[in-house]
Amino acid sequence: MYLLDLKTDTLVEAEIIKATIKNMPLKKDGWHFNWRAVFKYKNTETFILRLLSNSESVQGVLHLRKQGGMLIMDLVEIAPHNIGRKNKRYDYVAGCLIAFACRETFKLENNYKGFLTFESKTKLIEWYMNNYYAKIAMGQKMYIEPSDGQKLIDEYLNRKNTSNEED
Amino acid sequence: MKKIKNKNTMPDNGVLTSSMNTQNREFKELQLFLLDKASSLSKQEKINIELFAIQIKIEDYLKSNDDENNLITVGDFLRLYINKLNLKQNKLANYIGLNPTNFNKILSGNRKVNFELSYTLSQIFNLDPKTWILIQVKNEYRELKKNKSKYFQKFNLEDLISA
User: Fold this and answer.
1) Closest chain B C-alpha to A86 CA, distance in angstroms
2) What separation in angstroms does the CA of B96 have from each of B67, B77, B82?
3) How far apart, in whole angstroms, are the C-alpha atoms of residue A82 and residue A80?
4) Domain count, chain A
5) How do residues A128-139 score in pLDDT, each as one tens digit?
6) A117 in a domain, yes or no?
7) What is the ipTM metric for this complex?
8) Partner-chain contact B14 A75, CB within 8 Å
9) Residue B55's closest CA among B127, B105, B123, B5?
10) Which residues from A are below 8 Å from B64, CB to CB?
11) Which residues does chain A have within 8 Å of residue B35's beta carbon, measured at their own beta carbons?
């Protein structure tokens, strides 16, 4: 998978791996959530998105929870340097994390297979709808259907870096 | 480079979700809502989900470290397709031009998949044509490494040159 380096307008290779307490980002570095606290939660898995070229640099964190047979994208945070219009460093971070969460839903062995659900921040509902095919289930609870999840996986996780290919 | 168009401004804060309360009535309603959505999918959509789920299983297996996970054979993955898609084993064998006995040997690991068969099966299940060969190679390498790695250590270029 690739992130878009907005400084150089090039794609940079990235990976999503299972997080450990050791490689979690810290509040003192500008992150909002106390990510070290999530390891005490049951039925959850946490992943970090990082650059292949710099394994120390976490670009985003994803916390998934299995509850009632469903896979919930419970917490997502992108790195402070990837927010905003002016100084944002890498694009596609949220897309890669959401697509990864969608991919995980296909591992469910029940009727919820392929469905991702989550609770959006109020002001982000439209952003999810417009950018990530999410639909409103009720209130702020949203979901992404299997076919749309597949589109996101293709778009973000299976992206080809065509700039390296010869004409 | 083709950029993905963000139709809205990115969030001004890095936190994109609120943790979901799973202990209230609304959560139960959400479960029912999604179950209803799942049951209203067409037969073809349900097949696509199963196909994609197995594809992911294969991708993860091929990417996994050779030392981790249990061995999953070509036959195991083929049986997954057969079971999840309610296929008849003999019908599949005949469709791809294989004698059912020979197909059964592939399922049980007593016969290897060749490139042509890998291509055919991949075409049916919407996979990369090399998929079945790659599973086979991974498993053969893994077994060889496990059982004969000491034997291979005795070979080296220096010995060959000085011999």
Assistant:
1) 11
2) 33, 17, 14
3) 5
4) 1
5) 999 999 999 999
6) yes
7) 0.90
8) no
9) B127
10) none
11) 111-112
Q: What percent of chain A has pLDDT over 70?
A: 97
**Which tens digit of pLDDT belongs to each residue from B99-134?**
999 999 999 999 999 999 999 999 999 999 999 999
Domain boundaries, position A27: 2-161
Burial (CB < 10 A; 0-12, 13-18, 19+), residue B59, is middle
Tokens 């893994």 label which residue? Answer: B142
Residue type, A88: K
A166 located within any domain: no
Put simply, the answer to whether B20 touches A119 (Cβ < 8 Å) is: yes
Strand partners, A144: A116
Chain A CB within 8 Å of residue B40 CB: no
Structural domain includes residue A167: no
From chain A, pick out residues whose CB is under 8 angstroms from the CB of B33.
137-138
Tell me whether B30 touches chain A (CB under 8 Å): yes
Nearest residue, CB atoms, A75 vs list B19, B22, B39: B19
Q: Map tokens 């075409």 to a residue.
A: B123
- The pTM assigned to this predicted structure is 0.89
> Which pLDDT band, with edges at 50, 70 and 90, does A167 fall under?
very low
Give all domains of chain B, ordered by start, each with its CATH number: 46-162 (1.10.260.40)
Cβ contact, residue pair A143, B3, below 8 Å: no
Q: What CATH number did the domain enclosing A135 receive?
A: 3.40.630.30
